[in-house]
Automatic annotation (TrEMBL):
Cofactor: Zn(2+)
GO molecular function terms noted in the UniProt entry: guanine deaminase activity; zinc ion binding
InterPro entries in UniProt: Amidohydro-rel, Metal_Hydrolase, Metallo-dep_hydrolases
Ranges of residues in domain Amidohydrolase-related: 74-329
Pfam families in the record: Amidohydro_1
Keyword Hydrolase set for record: yes
Listed SUPFAM superfamilies: Metallo-dependent hydrolases
Species name: Thanatephorus cucumeris (strain AG1-IB / isolate 7/3/14) (Lettuce bottom rot fungus)
Presence of keyword Transmembrane helix: no
Keywords recorded for this protein, A-Z: Hydrolase, Metal-binding, Zinc
Name the UniProt record assigns to this protein: Amidohydrolase-related domain-containing protein
Length: 341
């Protein structure tokens, strides 16, 4: 492959949530570092050499020119804000259950197998390939509760060149035999994972970042949530991902476990986990007050429509969230369904 690459043809680029620009005959230059250095929006084939020279690029043997074929176009890669990498073996399984029964009967038994790092390698490598092949160049991955297996996931993601956030699940209760032995062990493993991931790309712009991942409030004691909140406060660069208000039964159980909390969202707010770097998945049954709380904290919502439908969880009020000024992005999370879109 040549050190310099030029792409000529249609380019689509989003401008706002409601608007995108389309350039049918753009010229895009990728430098040897793999960075898009410039785009000229309207260039006829006969103008390519002239435009390149104006940009200081001589079209010699070090430059590959790709003329896009009919039906091909370039666009920014998809960003998936909610993917459970260890759940890919479960695609299309458990549709007879709602959330909590699905977790206990399908998901937790599968995830428990990832204490075997060889098994993790066999699963995670094709998982990342499939995500990349679907056009997703940035992804927020949940691993399992196993530090070693999640390190395997982070290494695979890094080696394949995907930009990502990778976290191990923190969960020390209400998960049967699939749970961590203590709060202290969960925090220790999390800190070791953070150090491991940061060592993969010890530079100012790493591809792979660690992310704090309290699975959801039900699976975490108050002490564990508070300890993770303390970590986020001590290191404001850390992002956070978790679930909120996915299922009505889940909400009821959460409020029984946290009787002092006014709402599900309040559990995370009290623990210091509702920040401008927090991603809350599903968020189907939020009250108006919760929406305002999330907005005031600057947290984002990851909308997962196919999963919400498959587990009969409900329909999120995405339009209302956007109208209220919340940050919302649609996730490609389809582990509970039949295909990866």
């Amino acid at each position: 492959m040549a050190a310099h690459r030029l792409f000529h043809g249609p380019v689509i680029t989003p401008v706002t949530v409601h608007k995108a620009e389309f350039w049918p005959s753009a010229l895009l230059y990728v430098n040897p570092a793999g960075t898009i250095e410039w785009i000229v929006s309207d260039v006829e084939p006969s103008q390519i050499q002239t435009v390149a020279l104006e940009k200081g690029l001589v079209l010699d043997d070090s430059v590959d020119i790709y003329e896009l074929k009919y039906g091909e176009w370039l666009m920014p890669g998809f960003v998936d804000t909610h993917t459970h990498a260890p759940q890919f073996p479960n695609i299309g399984i458990g549709g007879q259950y709602e959330l909590l029964d699905w977790l206990n009967n399908v998901t937790f038994p599968t995830e428990s197998r990832f204490d075997d790092t060889k098994f993790a390698e066999r699963v995670y490598s094709p998982v990342v390939d499939r995500v990349l092949n679907s056009g997703t160049t940035t992804c927020c991955y949940y691993g399992t509760l196993h530090r070693e297996a999640t390190q395997v996931l982070a290494k695979i993601v890094h080696d394949k060149g995907q930009r990502a956030f990778v976290g191990k699940c923190n969960m020390n209760r209400e998960s049967g035999s699939y749970q961590e032995v203590s709060t202290s062990q969960s925090i220790e493993d999390t800190k070791e994972l953070i150090s491991y991931i940061r060592a993969l790309s010890p530079n100012s712009a790493p591809l792979v970042h660690p992310i704090l991942t309290p699975r959801f409030a039900i699976s975490c004691t108050g002490d564990l949530l508070n300890a993770l909140g303390d970590m986020a406060k001590e290191d404001p660069t850390l992002a956070i991902q978790t679930h909120v208000s996915e299922n009505l039964g889940e909400i009821d159980f959460t409020l029984k476990l946290f009787p002092k909390a006014k709402t599900y969202t309040d559990v995370y707010k009290h623990a210091g986990l509702l920040t401008d770097r927090t991603i809350l998945a599903h968020a189907i049954h939020l009250s108006d007050d919760e929406m305002e709380e999330i907005k005031s904290c600057g947290s984002g919502i990851s909308h997962c429509p196919t999963s919400n439908f498959y587990l009969n969880s409900g329909v999120a009020r995405v339009g209302e969230m956007l109208d209220r000024g919340l940050k919302v992005i649609s996730s490609l999370f389809v582990i509970t369904t039949f295909i990866l879109t």
